[in-house]
Amino acid sequence: MSEDDDAWFAPKKYGYGAGLPIAREGWAVLSGYLLVLGLCGLLVGWDAAIGGATAFAIFLAATIALIAISARKIRGGWRWRWGDEE
Q1: DSSP 13
Q2: Helices 24-46 and 48-72 sit at what angle, rounded to 10 degrees?
Q3: Residue 74 scores a pLDDT above 80
Q4: What is 14-68 written as a DSSP string?
Q5: DSSP conformation class of 11
Q6: I need a labelling partner for 24 at 20 to 30 A (CA). Which of 2, 9, 41, 70 fits?
Q7: pLDDT, tens only, 22-41
Q8: 9-11/18-21 β-pairing
């Protein structure tokens, strides 16, 4: 693969999914996701009764968004990998 293929994430060696970010945009997406997770934790700590359900909904939406973005921006496409060199 070329270095200028517009990928934000490297593929995992085995299985589905993305590895670590390889571009500035990928690091920004991952940092934003971790920030949202931290804010969800604060929301649960602030009001566990209402905040728990709200925090879970936000967590779920953020996780779905992270998976969708990484699936579109992974080097070599989102597919099963067996560890073979490409």
Answers
A1: S
A2: 170
A3: yes
A4: BSSSEEEE-SHHHHHHHHHHHHHHHHHHHHHHH-HHHHHHHHHHHHHHHHHHHHH
A5: E
A6: 41
A7: 999 999 999 999 999 999 88
A8: antiparallel
CA angle 60, 62, 63 (to 5 degrees): 65
CA distance 21 to 83: 19
> Which residues on neighbouring strands pair with residue 74, listed in sequence order?
9
Instruction: Tell me the pTM.
Output: 0.82
pLDDT for res 55:
86
d(CA 32, CA 70): 13
d(CA 70, CA 67): 5
Phi, psi dihedral angles at 7 (to 5 degrees): -85, 145
End-to-end CA distance of the chain: 8
What digits encode the pLDDT tens for the residues 38-47? 998 888 887 7
